Amino acid sequence: MLSAGRRVFSALARPTLRDATLTAARASTTTTPALRRLLSALAVLEQRDGQLSTGSLSAVTAAQRLGGTVHAFVAGSNIQAAAGQAAKVAGVDKVIAVDNGAYDRGLPENFAPLLVENIKKGGYTHVIAGTTAFGKNVLPRVAALLDSQQISDITAIQDDKTFVRPIYAGNAIATVESADPIKVITVRGTAFAAPPTEGGSATIEAGADPNADTATAEWVSENLAKSDRPDLATAGRVVSGGRGLKSKEEFDRIMLPLADSLGAAVGASRAAVDSGYADNSLQVGQTGKVVAPQLYVAVGISGAIQHLAGMKDSKVIAAINKDADAPIFQVADVGLVGDLFEKVPELTEKLSKA
């Protein structure tokens, strides 16, 4: 149940999911100049090994659209390099940096209290992060500590208290109005293009460090899948395979050469991941990564609504499937009906020669 301070207006999406998202993205900011001077947004940025994650810069773009001052926040060990990178981002007025190795892993048990301390100190009206594993892990705790209701995965900003977000896997668009004094928001990266990483001249200031106790959680280990191919979340070209590939061996035999011939990242549908054809880090969809490359090639993917929610914003969608009635063809710009085990190797060969 929604509180009295928030109203939701839902509208059915247009015939195509992509049209609905474009309509939401065109919403204009109507905040008055006088109010903009009172607004201040904190964009929470991610870093790894002292290097800023450019994928988190969509939070800065969203903060800029509010019209007030924009501060960036980074925390971790040897943070100077990441803070320096953030200071050069166009549109950032100040960078709040906390140099403490305890925050390297972004554990919500200590990162959330750290954020809350700096939010209260800075008097921010909006706190914004990307809809990433980090953002989805930390910001709900921040919202709870601030006694605010989080607004998740927004795709457009109408004014300082009204936001647009997809619901029901993108089948409907909700306009959400929040009366909370501090708005805690996560943004869909594909809806807010990252700002230029050069041209800014923000000052860097040391943030408050409450040294929150992390006794309730301990970082044990991580296993990272390393690849020479582009990162799936930010790649300009993506090729994804589905259940139609029938096995992991066939997935690798068919998809990897195609990706190499296009210089593309490799993705997969949830059905392919659940069947063990691909690692779950490659999953594209509502419960995986949301991508919006210039070219998205769907191979052996039927087009379940959960998968479409993760790739419908792609500029050009090409589909290869033997089922002419597969839902994927309803959103595809280019479709090829045929046996993928014949058509994809043929396409790969021609691309390699070209």
Concise synopsis of the structure shown:
Belongs to the ETF alpha-subunit/FixB family. By secondary structure, the chain is an alpha/beta fold.
Note the main sheet: 7 strands, parallel
Placed side by side, the strands forming the largest sheet appear as 8-12-7-2-5-6-13
Level-2 CATH architecture of the largest domain: 3-Layer(aba) Sandwich
Query: Helix tally?
Result: 10
Query: Helix/strand/pairing class, anyone?
Result: alpha/beta
Radius of gyration: 21 Å
Specify the oligomeric state: single chain
Specify the helix fraction band: 25-40%
Strand content: 25-35%
Amino-to-carboxy terminus distance: 57 Å
Task: Give the helices and strands as they follow along the chain.
Answer: EHHEEEHEHEHEHEEEEEEEHEHEHEEH
Assign the CATH superfamily of the largest domain.
Answer: HUPs
Shape: elongated
Please tell me the overall pLDDT: 88
Number of strands: 18
- Per CATH, the class of the largest domain reads Alpha Beta
- How many separate domains make up the residues? 2
- Residue stretches low in confidence (pLDDT < 50, at least 5 long) are 1-29
Q: Might you state the CATH topology name of the largest domain? A: Rossmann fold
Cofactor: FAD
Main location: mitochondrion
InterPro entries: DHS-like_NAD/FAD-binding_dom, ETF_a/b_N, ETF_a/FixB, ETF_alpha_N, ETF_asu_C, ETF_asu_C_CS, Rossmann-like_a/b/a_fold
Subcellular location: Mitochondrion matrix
